[in-house]
Design goal:
alpha/beta; Spore Coat Polysaccharide Biosynthesis Protein SpsA, Chain A; UDP N-Acetylglucosamine Acyltransferase, domain 1; 3 domains; 29% strand; elongated
Length: 459
């Protein structure tokens, strides 16, 4: 079986945070997730993640998704792979891919293509490489007519070798049985006292084994982050790749300032994304929408021809033809049906807003089922929590809810009913009825004169 070992034990001291380096995020996902996803997309179903620093964070994230091994002491990449010996010995047929958990841009096509080359050439080891414009700091690939003859590090390279643009990505395919043998032959006779996986290439060649290289068409496979600046560059690289893909598919941007779109987001053609908009998770946006400025959307499904201006929406559904904003918060488990209009300073939570309903401004609707073509007056609040439990409000089709209403849940308002301004509704309202709540008005004449006189005496 073909399998993968992902090295994820690095601390990342220059990140200055108590978190394993592979758990730092690129566009909202840990770098480790990008690498795992590429392996899974390449149909590598047997995966071992080697943990180390703050390993419990990675273990909690992985759950039972794959196998793990623990590197108690960080003694180099070769030493890290040694910790996965039980995983390797459990299935010695086939090949093993070793890759870094903090190099997020490895892709399934590169994994598949390099494996095919590895098998075709009957290599003991195949190094995944890439050509880069600025190779400084990376190990250079020394090629022969039939394969490679080694990897030379920057500090050891000659002037001529430093001009080589093909560099080591840090990812390798090994024949599994050969990898097990090579790991036992790595020495740590260097200044750092560490075991380097790159030494396996030289050992294999010295033993008459074949080593090859596969040059990826994706130069970003070599990119990683050693500090916060590097992490920012990874985020910017990923962000621009996604924007380029979306523009090629017909999504419009007048300016990309502040726009962050995560990689699993889907956006239909003709939609325009305005500045300072963040779109996360598994959000799906239809065609010919205008999203932004200043929107945050997360795991929300949006239909066609929707306009959102300064809206935050989470784990909800917004149907076609809806217009929302500005300053609107759509909280989880809400469904905004087609042709709804929602104005400024409105909050919706765990509610269904029926087709064609209008909520002009200054309203809170939580745990509610609202019918079609309802008018919600400004200042309306569904009082859905009594301190112990949440209850729902129901409003029928074509109802007219007056301004500054409090709807005390659980309560049901029938179709075509009206409520007067300032009403507090504590009982069900039948169809076609008018609900009026007018308390007795008490006027105390001279109240402020007495109040201010008392205050003056106290001084």
């Amino acid at each position: 079986m073909n399998q993968a070992v992902i090295l994820a034990g690095g601390q990342g001291k220059r990140m200055h945070a108590p978190k394993p380096k592979p758990m730092f995020e690129v566009l909202g996902e840990p770098m480790l997730e990008w690498v795992l996803g590429a392996c899974e997309a390449a149909e590598l179903t047997r995966i071992c993640v080697v943990t180390g620093y703050e390993s419990e964070q990675i273990l909690a994230y992985l759950g039972d998704r794959c196998e793990t091994a623990y590197q108690a002491e960080r003694k180099g990449t070769g030493h890290a792979v040694m910790q996965a010996k039980d995983f390797l010995n459990a299935d010695t047929d086939g090949n093993t891919l070793v890759l870094c958990g903090d190099a997020p841009f490895i892709d399934a096509d590169t994994i598949k293509g390099s494996l095919a080359r590895h098998i075709e050439e009957k290599n003991t080891v195949t190094v995944i490489t890439a050509d880069v414009a600025e190779p400084t700091g990376y190990g250079r690939i020394l090629r022969t007519d039939s394969g490679i003859k080694g990897i030379v590090e920057e500090k050891d390279a000659t002037d001529a070798q430093r001009t080589i643009k093909e560099i080591n990505s840090g990812c390798y395919w090994f024949r599994t049985t050969d990898l097990i043998g090579l790991l036992g032959r790595i020495k740590n006779n260097n200044k750092q006292g560490e075991y380097y996986l790159t030494d396996t290439v030289a050992i294999a060649l010295d033993s008459g084994m074949r080593a090859g290289a596969y040059k990826s068409a994706n130069p970003d496979v070599v990119l990683g982050a050693n500090d916060r600046k590097g992490l920012l560059m990874l985020n910017e690289t990923a962000r621009q790749r996604i924007l380029d893909r979306l523009m090629a598919a017909g999504v419009g941007f007048v300016c990309t300032d502040g726009i962050i779109i995560e990689r699993n987001v889907q956006i239909g053609r003709g939609t325009e994304i305005l500045p300072n908009t963040i779109i996360r998770g598994k959000t799906v946006i239809g065609e010919n929408c205008k999203i932004g400025p200043n929107c945050v959307l997360e795991n929300t499904v949006i239909g066609d021809n929707v306009t959102l201006n300064t809206v935050q929406a989470y784990d909800s559904q917004i149907d076609s033809g809806v217009r929302i904003g500005p300053y609107v918060h759509i909280r989880p488990d809400s469904h905004i049906c087609s042709a709804v209009k929602i104005g400024d300073f409105v909050e919706i939570k765990n509610s269904e807003i029926g087709e064609g309903t209008m909520i002009a401004h200054l309203a809170y609707l939580g745990d509610s089922d609202i019918g079609k073509h309802v008018n919600i007056g400004c200042g309306t609040v569904t009082v859905n929590f009594d301190g112990l439990k949440k209850s729902r409000c129901e409003i029928g089709d074509h109802a007219f809810i007056g301004c500054n209403n409090n709807l005390i849940a659980p309560v049901s308002l029938g179709k075509d009913c009206y409520t007067a301004a300032g009403a507090t509704i504590t009982a069900d309202v039948p169809d076609y009825a008018l609900a009026i709540d007018r308390g007795t008005l008490h006027i105390k004449e001279g109240y402020t004169l007495r109040k201010f006189a008392k205050k003056k005496e106290e001084k």
